[in-house]
Amino acid sequence: MGTHQSYLSINQKKIVKSAGNRVGGKTLDTLLDDWNRVAGSKKNQITFEKFCELMQHLPKEDLRKLFDLYDTDHNNKVSFEEYVLTVVVLMDGNLDEKLTLIYNSFDENRDGTITRQEFQHAAKRFSQAGTELDREMFIRKVFAKCDTNNDGTISFEEFRQFLKTDRESFEKICGILAVGLNDE
Ligand SMILES: [Ca+2]
Ligand SMILES: [Ca+2]
User: Fold this and answer.
1) Cα(98) to centroid of ligand 2, in Å?
2) Which CATH superfamily includes the segment(s) 96-102+111-184?
3) pTM for the full model?
């Protein structure tokens, strides 16, 4: 899954390895069957088009957003490993694992920080409500609030604090990604 994953606070390989224990062997078999049906082989990566086929039970507008979440190395394709990782974290992940996945999908260049531009970009992709202008101003305000040490980027820790201190804004910014994100 690429070479630049050391900054992630979750161990993707470990999660994928323990998938059977975490979501159950049956679920894992189903994931593999679905995957093989659409992708042909475990080794193949799938494009957005195939991803829609794989996740056909979901509306397409949600799928565009979810694709970015599943594509953890941002190569515009989803691998079987990414698929299993994301399903496991969504089904069985703790708060940090889920947050890491969301944080990672914001962090387009995968350097371990979220810049203002990445934040704005992600917020526009994932959030739903409001006019452009409202959103622009809202996003600016939220970014400034999030960036508590004022260094112009949002660290994972700041991102975590954001969820804790202003859940409402967090949900507005993350839209569908915040669904199922429960406090522990
Ligand atoms: Ca990928
Ligand atoms: Ca970044």
Assistant:
1) 18
2) EF-hand (1.10.238.10)
3) 0.86
